Amino acid sequence: MDRRRLRDAATLFVRAPPLARSWSCILILTAGCPGVVLAQTHFTPYADAAYEYDTNFFALANNVPEPVGSGGPTRSDSFEKYKAGFEAAYDWSLQELFADAEGRRFEYSHFTTLDHDEYLLHGGLKWKLASVLDGVLDYQRERSQVSYLQFNATQLSYTQVYLQLQDTGTASINIQVAPEWRLESQGKVSNLDSPRPGYPNLSLRENSIDEGFKYGGFANLSAGLVAEYLDGHFTSGEFIVTPKYHQTSVDFAADYTLSGLSVFHGAIGYTNRVQEQAGNIAGLTGLISYERDLTGKTSVSVKVGRAINDYVTAAASEIDTTAEIDAVWHASKKIGVMAGYQYLHSSIAATDIIAVIAPARVDRLQTPSLSIKYQALDWLSLRPYLQYQKRQSSDSVYTFNGNTYGIELEARLGQPVPLTLARP
To answer: Is residue 166 within 8 Å of residue 78, measured between CB atoms?
Structure first.
């Protein structure tokens, strides 16, 4: 499961200037590159700059000595993040071509050797033939920093940044076999190269096939069965074995909308993962979410889920149980507030991949957060945010707590969009 510390990882293609000059450059960039909206073309450029301070940057336990940065021993650090990109789409009859690109740059105050660039490329085609056939061709490539939540930081990781590269390709075809019945098929290929301390060549390859048969003959309700087969394997030059697994899932899924005020999504089923070197993991899995507009300005959403995922650091599997609640208040057309709480319970399986057994462990991660967005102009917004993280683990070296504070300025051109909110 992707459990990054809600910190983007990314790359500007050129080195960013100091913070004050960069924010001015961002405004000049977006002012000089207006959004293009032609009859069938949509193009939205954007850029932002952010400052963030983290009191426990490496997610260290209290009994771990403080790492030494450029200013001496410290657990905390701050960084400046610069981001620029665009979102584009071209509508051609029933078809839609889309493309997104983003570059980001991170510069740190104390641990300057961790300065790095990252990027995101995403594009594809949404196609449709009459009212019978439709589907998506989608490709994404992202270079990002491996979160310090994913491994126990060592002396080496204080001075060396670990960057992962993921390529994901998806193809789907959907058939409207009858006015109320729809057959959905999807294939997906994912390649992740994700080095970690001690495993510089660690990688994960996954292939999956999804099949769904859904009924939409009820007003505001659609439901059906969804099945998935997934095959994956880890590789690394340090492994004495190549951990492999295959996984089968079957779910009953339903979506229900009530008068535009409430939206319910549910998927409940069973997942069985067969691991060649570590036995089987199986059990009840699924996701239930509920969104409700309480008033014209206030809404709340609740999610509960359970899934079998990958713990890449140890080439192992984990069972993740999650609970989330978010409350949104639109104080005005220009100001929005979002408060949230996330709970993640992770049960990580034991592995033996280098003739040394990595013991099983259980983690409990809590993340309350608060963000406020001010839409100063149609194209300019300001967002201060904060969050607290606390993880308790059966292995005390993974127990930690820390606070994050940040502020983000974003310029986005093109067609005005409604005020939207997101977690830090």
So the answer is: no
Give the integer Cα–Cα distance in Å for 226 and 253.
7
Distance CA 170, CA 172 (A): 7
Query: What is the residue-level pLDDT of the chain in tens, covering all 424 positions?
Result: 444 333 333 333 333 333 344 444 444 444 444 444 444 889 999 999 999 999 999 999 998 999 998 889 999 999 999 999 999 999 988 899 999 999 999 999 999 999 999 999 999 999 999 889 999 999 999 999 999 999 887 767 788 899 999 999 999 999 999 999 999 999 999 999 999 988 899 999 999 999 999 998 888 889 999 999 999 999 887 777 778 999 999 999 999 988 778 999 999 999 999 988 777 899 999 999 999 999 999 999 999 999 999 999 888 899 999 999 999 999 999 999 999 999 999 999 887 766 556 788 999 999 999 999 999 999 999 999 999 999 999 999 999 999 999 999 999 998 776 777 788 8
Q: Rounded to the nearest 5°, which phi and psi values hold at 187?
A: -120, 145
Distance of alpha carbon 164 from alpha carbon 153, whole angstroms = 16
- Helix or strand or coil: residue 419? coil
3-state SS of 250-281? EEEEEEEEECCCEEEEEEEEEEEEEECCCEEE
- Distinct helix (H) and strand (E) counts, the chain: 1, 23
Question: How many residues in total does the chain contain?
Answer: 424
Instruction: Report the distance separating Cα 106 and Cα 114, nearest Å.
Output: 8
The Cα diameter of the chain in Å comes to: 69
What DSSP letter does each residue of 178-246 carry, written as one string?
SSSEEEEEEEEEEEEE--BTTBTT-EEEEEEEEEEEEEEEETTEEEEEEEEEEEEEEE-TT-SS--EEE
Strands 298-311 and 316-330 turn out to be antiparallel
pTM, rounded to two decimals? 0.87
